[in-house]
Amino acid sequence: MALYLSELKLSHFRSxxxxxxxxxxxxxxxxxxxGAGKTNLLEAVSLFSPGRGMRRASAQDMTRRPEAxxxxxxxxLTGPEGTHEVAFQSESGAPRxxxxxxxxxxxxxxxxxxxxxxxxxSMDRLWIEGAEGRRRFLDRMTLSFFPDxxxxxxxxxxxxxxxxxxxxxxxxxxxxxAALEAQMARSGAQLHANRHEALRRLQAxxxxxxxxxxxxxxxxxxxxxxxxxxxxALRDALVDSRPRDMMAGRTxxxxxxxxxxxxFAAKGVPASDCSTGEQKALLISLILSNARALAPDFxxxxxxxxxxxxxxxxxxxxAALYDEICALGAQAWMTGTGAELFSDxxxxxxxxxxxxxxxxxxxxxxxx
Length: 368
Hints:
Blueprint: E1 4-13, E2 16-22, E3 28-31, H1 38-46, E4 71-79, E5 82-90, E6 97-100, E7 103-104, H2 107-113, E8 116-119, H3 131-145, H4 149-168, H5 174-207, E9 216-222, H6 231-240, H7 242-248, E10 258-264, E11 269-270, H8 276-298, E12 303-306, H9 315-328, E13 332-336, E14 350-354, E15 361-364
Parallel strand pairs: 3-13, 3-14, 8-12, 12-13
Antiparallel strand pairs: 1-2, 1-4, 4-5, 5-6, 6-7, 9-10, 10-11, 14-15
Helix pairs in contact: 3-5, 4-5, 4-7, 5-6, 5-8
C-alpha cells in the first residue's frame, strides 16, 4: 500500500497566490529558479503530518504578503486508512485549523492517516549545532512512530514553564510544585521511553539495509547526569533538585536536557568530526532508515520531503538515493534548480516546474 498525495491546492500560502497540482504516487521532482516558491510547496506538504511543519512557522507567517488575507492548503491523501480530503486554513493570522473529510480534527487524528519526513538544508549543521536542534530532529523521528509524542512534549513543556516561573519567583512552598512535577514526570518519562524506542527501530532498520549511505551509531545522552528511569524516579529527582533549580532559575533535570550523539559506524568517528559530505550522507541515511522502519508499522512508507538534496550529492550518491526512494515505494517531493538534477529518475518520476509569475505552478510531463 502506498501513501501519496494526488491533489495539492494552495491559496495565498507563502509566495503562492494559487497553486493547483495533480500528481500520482511516483516521486515528484520540483524544479525552477531560486525564489520561485519550490520550498514553499514542500512546506505545504509538511503540514499533512502532526506538528508545526518543516519551518515551525506560525500561521501568520504562512500567509502571502502583502495581502495577508489568510491562507488555505488542501489535498487528497491516499494511504492505509483509505482516501481522505484534508484541509488546513488560517484566517487573518488566526491559529491553523485542521479538517479531515470536512470535520474538525486534531493533530493526533492527522498522525493516524499520514506520516511525513523531511530533510532541509538547515539540517546540514545538525551534528555541529547545539543540543536543541538534535533533540528537535530526534523528536520529529519519534513523532513519526508515535503520533501522540507531540502532545506529550507540549504537556511537559507547559508544566516545566510553570515550574520555572515558580523557581524564578523563589517560591518555596512544596504544594505549588507537586502537581506540576507529577505532570512533568508522567509526560517526561513517556517522552524518554518513546525516544529510546525510536532509536532502537532506527538502528534495526540501518542494520538490515544495504545502502550507499553510511550507517550511524546513535545514543541518547544527558547534558548533565543521568535521566531518571520511570515516572516515579523522575518525580523524585525533580523534588530533590528544587534547591539547585531555584539557584539556576530553571529546571536542570528531565528529558529536555537530552542530546543525540551520532558516530559514523564504519569509521568510529563522531559525526561532529566528519566531513561536510559525510555528515550529509549520515543525515540521508537516517531519513531513509526512518522511512524503512516506519513502513511496516504504518502500512506504507511515509511521504518524503527533500529540499535541494540533489545539489549536495555527487552523481553516484544522487543516483543511489533515487534508486532507494523508488525501491522503498515512497512519494518523495524533491526540489532543485534544474530538471537535469533528476535525470537518473527518468520516467520513474513526475516533474513540476515552478515559475515565479504570480506564484503559479505548472505541471510538466515526465521525461526520460
